[in-house]
Amino acid sequence: xxxxxxxxxxxxxxxxxxxxxxxxxxxxxxxxxxxxxxxxxxxxxxxxxxxxxxxxxxxxxxxxxxxxxxxxxxxxxxxxxxxxxxxxxxxxxxxxxxxxxxxxxxxxxxxxxxxxxxxxxxxxxxxxxxxxxxxxxxxxxxxxxxxxxxxxxxxxxxxxxxxxxxxxxxxxxxxxxxxxxxxxxxxxxxxxxxxxxxxxxxxxxxxxxxxxxxxxxxxxxxxxxxxxxxxxxxxxxxxxxxxxxxxxxxxxxxxxxxxxxxxxxxxxxxxxxxxxxxxxxxxxxxxxxxxxxxxxxxxxxxxxxxxxxxxxxxxxxxxxxxxxxxxxxxxxxxxxxxxxxxxxxxxxxxxxxxxxxxxxxxxxxxxxxxxxxxxxxxxxxxxxxxxxxxxxxxxxxxxxxxxxxxxxxxxxxxxxxxxxxxxxxxxxxxxxxxxxxxxxxxxxxxxxxxxxxxxxxxxxxxxxxxxxxxxxxxxxxxxxxxxxxxxxxxxxxxxxxxxxxxxxxxxxxxxxxxxxxxxxxxxxxxxxxxxxxxxxxxxxxxxxxxxxxxxxxxxxxxxxxxxxxxxxxxxxxxx
Length: 575
What we know:
Elements: H1 2-11, H2 23-57, E1 59-67, H3 71-75, E2 89-91, E3 96-102, H4 113-118, H5 133-164, E4 166-168, H6 175-211, E5 221-229, E6 232-239, E7 241-243, E8 249-251, E9 259-265, E10 282-292, H7 295-301, H8 310-317, H9 343-348, E11 352-359, H10 361-368, E12 372-380, H11 383-414, H12 425-431, H13 436-443, H14 450-502, E13 509-512, H15 514-520, H16 529-536, E14 544-545, E15 559-562
Helix pairs in contact: 2-11, 2-14, 5-6, 5-7, 6-15, 13-14
């Protein structure tokens, strides 16, 4: 069987011979046709291999278009899909709702009129010692109730304004990108809202401090007067001072944040506000509660530790002429504030215990309502496609190739053969004796015959040179033919593999993910995804190169490998 195949391939011939030739010419032509057939089959096989490898290693890029995609269809699209929204500007209140839970003191009895009236001492207020809780307790809790009302009003107004802001979304965002962007927007809103309230409060405190207003409770300045004579008296304002825990003095004229621990004394009477004698006695020290130059400063510098303790609360209320009962607050470990947090710390956070945001991606997608989605899909060619392409390409290629190869082989084999060129110079000069030109030189002895000799030499030399050069080139080509085919084939294969492996690698780069870009950006919180895409496509930025079609290279954490994508439309208004 093997010998039959061997004989078949030795004698295979796809070309027809001319029937009008002589037997010798027919044998010569058959031999030429067999050689041409072998060359044709070799080139055909190499071409088939190259075509098959080229199609197998390359990817088919197609642009897929989906009209009016549903949310389920959109979620199954690749990351590079581009789906412009039919409605670019969407209000936050259409897909988000923000609810706040305030500190429990704002819903407790301690900001109610019942509590404030129960600890109000009326006209006897200034009869107690200066650091007695009964002097400023009622006004301090009035200030605390005001802070709760202001915090609620400010928070609700800020939420209303936030809901009216338009979210700019030129193209449809995926659920993860949408969630991260809205979370970042809400987080920045939660940070900026308390800061605005804190700034306003600090401004009011500074104005009050520098105006040097005198408290009616005489806790910062004391108005004194004395008579010089029966017709003359002098009124003076005396700035009060307090002792800190470490007994260091502090005066309200220079520092409105002076404070001292609040207590209940047995001192009571007219003109005893600044008097302490040997009979003075401390009935109770109120844990965490401070007094200061003004009731507002006092409550801000205080903690609410005593009001989390029912025993402390009952003892405190016993010093007031009331039968009202009050319940202490319950401290929760889940609170963002510790039990000894000052009221100032709570107010700085707008007295908000928890922000609760409900974000609906379904509502956002309905508002966005993309009319069209386009994306590129890279996939390998199917076997049917490759087979169809090869058949269509080889149809005309084989016809032209067979015709050209037959002409070349017949042309080469019909050239007359001469002696091969040798580098033996002795044999070369001996053979010159056989050349017709030298024989002509021997026979010509007269001058008039020099002209004829000249033309004979030139003609003979030109003919010999052309024939020798052409034959030498043909012999060199035939000698190198078999050697050159294999390297050319190998180089072609490696070139195709290299092109396919590294095609587009210089356009594939590691860029920050949308979440990383949002978290590290110092731009306003309303950053559109389209703006993010434009920033990532900035050619001036140097990014780490990544991967190839085989995805052999991975990007670091927080980065994603981006390949060529559908061009992004230049939509105005990224923010």
